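# step 3/5: fold
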Amino acid sequence: METSTAPHIGVGPVPPGFQVMLPPEFDSVEQERLHRKQELAAAFRLFGKLGFSEGVAGHITARDPENPEWFWVNPFGMSFSRIRVSDLVLVDHAGNVVEGRHPVNRAAFCIHSEVHKARPDAVAAAHAHSVHGKAFSALRRRLDPLTQDACAFFEDHGLYEDFRGVVNDTEEGRRIGEALGPHKAVILANHGLLTVGHSVAEAAWWFITMERSCQAQLLAMAAGTPFLVDRETALQVREQIGSPLSGWFQLRPLWEQITEEQPDLFD
């Protein structure tokens, strides 16, 4: 793992001389592919552990480093809590299975293929039917800057309001990609959340913390009238905790936890 003495990595000031982790660099495309698949399997295990599964719904995708128009995705119908590296399926943008022994979710293809097409900078995209994300999406509104964590999404998430049932065509995926725009996340009305990142870890962290921010806002709104963080402060906090490096780094404790608890995910 790379280390650095950089004074700031987007998660708060770092004392002089203090070593911080940076995303790994790779000597070959094979090493990078394996690492992405390992992060992807770990992200599914975390989603399962955190209760983000809902039947067969939900998917996380990661671009293949050698063929960026292809992406790795979870097998259709397999529990998040059982997914291993060897279970992941490689598909192209036409939805054809390139590598793997399992079928894929057509909704995953319709949404994620268009999201990846709209966002060539995004290595990964995450979507699941988490409870608080679903509940908040029914309000058809964006998150407010109510907490420090929610400020990571201040003026940096979209809203897709045109819910038409289960996504079964790429045209709706294209519209979702437009609603996402240049942001790290989009709220899909009456559906849930979708996040993207420059790494699998980043996309997974944005989903986890956005789900929790939805929960916090729902609780605050139920209790009374919340006070919003002012715009200047919200933007400042977003710069501190909302960068791609910050998203990657903030998943590290959960990565260490899940890989120690469930090492079979590497199989």
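# step 4/5: annotate
Residues 253 and 259 are 10 Å apart (CA to CA).
# step 5/5: archive (pending)
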